[in-house]
Design a protein that fits this description.
Blueprint: H1 6-9, H2 11-26, E1 28-29, H3 39-45, E2 56-57, E3 60-61, H4 67-84, E4 88-90, H5 96-107, E5 113-117, H6 133-137, E6 139-143, H7 153-163, E7 167-170, H8 181-190, E8 194-198, H9 203-208, E9 220-224, E10 235-239, H10 241-246, H11 250-262, H12 268-281, H13 284-306, E11 310-311, E12 320-324, H14 333-342, E13 345-346, E14 348-350, E15 364-368, H15 370-374, H16 379-396, H17 405-419, H18 423-438
Parallel strand pairs: 1-13, 5-6, 5-7, 7-8, 8-9
Antiparallel strand pairs: 2-3, 4-10, 9-10, 11-12, 12-15, 14-15
Helix pairs in contact: 3-12, 4-12, 5-11, 7-8, 13-16, 14-16, 16-18
Bound molecules: pyridoxal-5'-phosphate (PLP).
Residues 33, 95-97, 100, 124, 126, 171-173, 198, 200-201, 224 line the site of pyridoxal-5'-phosphate.
């Protein structure tokens, strides 16, 4: 065993980590599912807790030596319960996808019917998409958004009444409006289905009070801990009073589904970092953070629309914006993502409602404000960034994205060589670097 630090022990990996830190520092991170944790969270992640096995739950472990791990996990559980106002929390899921699979394991038998928002309408893979295990092992009946981008509640009700699902998911990875928890609960209750809320994207906004909480309406709530919640990668499974009322054993079923149903030993270093993040999330400063994240998102949406860009649902209620690029041509999402990356703005291509192209060459981009807000940016910066994005979109206007494979290959080649010469994008890149410098990220950490 070496006792030197990573720089001596493994310069190759150490260098790449430092480079990644510099990349995060010098670009505008606008992928809505990403964020920057505090130093305290980073510190907890890199601790000796990663050495420990602690299969089981506090007070009921299979291995010895868990006195302090028990203390840490109990603190994390109590903080999660208090913050979300629920009677039961499991903090062990490795991430959001395994947490969702634990929900299926607790509630369903293979082949049971489940409903979730369709992937290309903004839903998550684990809500029943065909290439996900959840679509392979269960009978998935997807619901959709209407042409205006809002969840089609009439369709949900019609499908639920006809298909009698065991459970219904509410939640998404690309949805810019408030989730209709109450309306979906009425539909689920009407057909005796479990309602499971996956609030991965908006958990921080719920805590800050800028999005309604699903807790009064859902039986189970899942959230990742690394998005607006600003913790380490991981997830929480919460059982509500409504859930326990329907099935007093639901908490036990969830715990058993996580371990031993799906997982072995929990990642105790992540559990500690989750505890730290939940502590941070209970402060007035975090409430302000959530409020500012939404204010920034609305300011950015305004800036983009003023400059002629079309947004799905014509705006946003949360931290996220979906730009409909069809006025520039169909399938332009990839060009937009590449052009913005050259300008120092990191977003992702995304499908739009009734996508006219394809999931791999979609017609939109998805962007969000959680990470920029963590850096301290506010409305004036959003106004600037809106102008950067709009100018960058002008640069992709001359190109097209053909549907036919051979023509597409040629078009992409032409785009790549053309766009890399854009002096406008280079100018914007200089401005985004300057903006990043004004809002330093992790100034305490080393420089490359
Ligand atoms: C991010 C996300 C997940 C999955 O989380 P991973 O940690 O990436 O597995 C599940 N559901 C929704 C709605 C998400 O946004």
């Amino acid at each position: 065993m070496t006792d030197s630090g990573i720089e001596q022990a493994d310069p190759e990996v150490a260098q790449a980590i430092l480079k990644e830190l510099e990349r995060q520092r010098n670009t505008l991170e606008m992928i809505p599912s990403e964020n920057f944790t505090s130093l305290a969270v980073l510190e907890a992640l890199g601790t000796v807790l990663t050495n420990k096995y602690s299969e089981g739950y506090p007070g009921k472990r299979y291995y010895g030596g868990n006195e302090f791990v028990d203390r840490i996990e109990t603190v994390a559980i109590e903080r999660a319960k208090k913050l979300f106002g629920v009677p039961h929390a499991n903090v062990q899921p490795y991430s959001g996808s395994p947490a969702n699979f634990a929900v299926y394991t607790a509630l369903c038998k293979p082949g049971d019917t489940i409903m979730g928002l369709n992937l290309t309408d903004g839903g998550h893979l684990t809500h029943g998409w065909k290439t996900s295990a959840t679509g392979m092992f269960f009978n998935s009946v997807p619901y959709h958004v209407r042409a205006d981008g809002y969840i089609d509640l009439d369709e949900v009700e019609e499908l639920a009444t006809r298909k009698r699902p065991r459970m219904i998911w509410v939640g998404a990875t690309a949805y810019t409006r408030e989730f209709p928890f109450k309306e979906l609960a009425r539909i689920a209750d009407g057909v005796d289905a479990y309602l499971v809320a996956d609030v991965s994207h908006i958990a921080g906004l719920i805590i800050a009070g800028v999005h309604a909480s699903p807790v009064p309406y859902a039986h189970i709530v899942m959230t990742t801990t690394h998005k607006t919640l600003r913790g380490p990668r991981g997830a929480l499974l919460l059982v509500t009073d409504k859930g326990l009322k329907r099935d007093p054993e639901l908490a036990d079923k969830i715990d058993k589904a996580v371990f031993p149903g799906l997982q072995g030993g929990p990642h105790d270093n992540n559990t500690a970092a989750i505890a730290v993040a939940l502590q941070e999330a209970s402060t007035p400063a975090f409430k302000q953070y959530g409020e500012q994240t939404v204010k920034n998102s609305k300011a950015l949406a305004g800036s983009l629309m003023t400059r002629g860009l079309k947004l799905v649902t014509d705006g946003t209620d949360n931290h996220m914006i979906l730009v409909d690029l069809t006025p520039l041509g169909t399938g332009m999402g990839m060009y937009a993502q590449d052009a913005l990356e050259l300008a120092g703005i990191v977003v992702n291509k995304n499908t739009i409602p009734k996508e006219p192209a394809s999931p791999f060459y979609p017609s939109g981009i998805r962007l969000g404000t959680p990470a920029l807000t963590t850096r301290g940016m506010r409305e004036p910066e959003m106004e600037m960034i809106g102008a950067f994005i709009a100018s960058s979109m002008d640069e992709i206007r001359p190109y097209t994205m053909p549907m036919e494979k051979e023509a597409r290959r040629e078009a992409i080649k032409k785009f790549r060589s053309g766009i890399s010469q854009s002096s406008k994008l280079k100018e914007i890149r200089a401005e985004t670097v300057e903006l990043c410098r004004r809002f330093p990220l992790y100034p305490e950490l080393p420089r490359a």
